[in-house]
Design goal:
By secondary structure, this protein is of the alpha/beta class. The protein has a single domain, classed as Vaccinia Virus protein VP39 (Rossmann fold), CATH 3.40.50. About 35% of the residues lie in helices and about 20% in strands. The protein has 9 helices and 9 strands. Strands 3-2-1-4-5-9-6 form a 7-stranded mixed β-sheet. Helix 7 crosses helix 8.
Amino acid sequence: MHFEKEAVRRYWDAAPCGTADVAAVDAAHRDAELEGIRYEREPFIPRFARFDSARGERLLEVGVGAGTDHLRFARAGAVCTGIDLSNVSLETTRRRLASEGLLSDLRVADAETLPFGDASFDRVYSWGVIHHTPDTAQAAREILRVLRPGGRFCVMVYNRHSLVAAQAWLVYAALRGHPRRSLADVLAQHMESPGTKGYTAAEARSLFRGARESAVETVVTPYDMRIGRRRFLPRWSWRAVPQRLGWFHVVVGTK
């Protein structure tokens, strides 16, 4: 495994995505809290994921994290497959599925070399994942490769020109006397796992230039309105922020 990917794996093994703020100790309460936090902070996910329309579809999730979205697809009746670089994340997801009597083909795998044949899936979903792998463009090509013609993809990547990125630059560059430090370097060194990247809207769409059609929607998130580790400005205040400054670029399209 490439050394950069090994560092990414170690980071997410230590705390699968979404688990850092969970306080409950027993599994059942942790699972409920995980789901509550995810959709309270990111209430727009169902609009993009379209869980309810997945029944009978062959679905691949690239980067299952703690499994919250994967559970929603499985509950909806999708034929689920999921990959992650982190075995701890996969075990968390596997346990949560089993607790509800649900199934998925879960594998440790690299987003840049998906272990599936061409046109294997009706839908590919990846929320906040491929910006963590060194060759994000290759991961995007792999998503299109395994998607059947006419199949749908939904991929979220971070926005380099967002309020979140500006806040990080202020803390780790300007206030430390390094005003020439780039946003890209700050995100790579201080945003979640090592090497994290952010994209402009045009760059995000360009990742999927091989698609038949694609569109990018930029979304303002609670993280753009953070005033503390777990404190956010009220939701009504989000409307004051131009959409182009939101932390999430969501790329949707068809092959």
